Amino acid sequence: MADILTPAELRHTLHQFPELMFEEYKTTKILLENISGMDNIKILRPLETGLIAEYKVNDGDYYLFRADIDALPIKEETETPFASMNNFMHACGHDVHTSILYGLLWHVVNNKINKNILFLFQPGEEGGGGAEKIINSGVLNNYNIKKAFALHVTDEYEQGTIASTPGILFASAYEVDIEFFGKSAHVAFPENGKNAFEALTLFLSRVKDLIKEEKEKVIFGYGRIESGEVRNIIPAYAKIEATIRTLSRAKSEAFFNKIIVLLGTIEKETGIKCTISAGSLYTEVEVDKPLFEECKKALSGKFKFIDCSYKMTGEDFGFISKLYPSFMFWLGTRTEVEFGLHNPKFIPDDSVITKGIDIFKVILNEV
Predict the structure, then answer these.
(1) N or C, which end of the chain is more exposed by having fewer CB within 10 Å?
(2) Fold of 171-281
(3) Percent of the chain at pLDDT above 90?
(4) Entry pTM
């Protein structure tokens, strides 16, 4: 094992060569090169990218630890010496997650820990639903998984802080694209056209009214709007790329159906065709309450541990949390400036890797 990368070295390598969801071929190759051949490790490849490292030393149950490995289509703006060498970036910290899990694996193998563990290096978290695809492959059906664990870094909290909550931790997230098809005309003669962008703005106004009627927390957020070609022509086409966030998958689906009805009303009023396309639907991440209390007891004396209540963040670990008693938590990374996730300047310090490994070690030993 002398020739394999350390966790920090692995992080630097992965950060330099980030890959988008289900394109993590180099990432997977690097992991294979450093994990294959370790004692008591069996490599499983249920999908084209990513892997599961099975560590089996007895006939007992399994613990599952998961890290996501994909990056984002964001151009990095940090000054770190190991900055991305392409136009993508680990702006959500998955390089840190992967390195922490790799470090835990290294610890388990070197110290011959007497517990069976599945180390899941999961592809396609950023909108691809990789966790659900792993589950649907059937590979996990071969194991009696007792508990499942995952973390997510964030600079919302100071470095080393553990933040979680019993029950719903992260929201259900539903990706939706909405398109409006009108008719172009010169702006001097608007009566000859049908303004798709005006239908879009009408929709945004009406969807706010829908949200006001909801008794539970609902977010309709949009990050991209597309419309128009030149300044003096009424746009014949408009599109919203959006996400629905609620505290349950059923609620997300119900609100999606309300949007369909709303679009039908707008279509009748404006004569502009409206269509909606569904993307990834993530279920909510649910932290098992008894397991939360176990982890809180084990970790509170050694780390700063806070109950952060639920967040409207989406995370596909929710699929795993519905199958097994699960504990997921935020791991704080902030040392000075806070940038937030998916920011081109988000770059946690390497020292948080050791903290993450230490937290997982305590969980493994005491929970």
Answers:
(1) N
(2) Alpha-Beta Plaits (3.30.70)
(3) 99
(4) 0.95
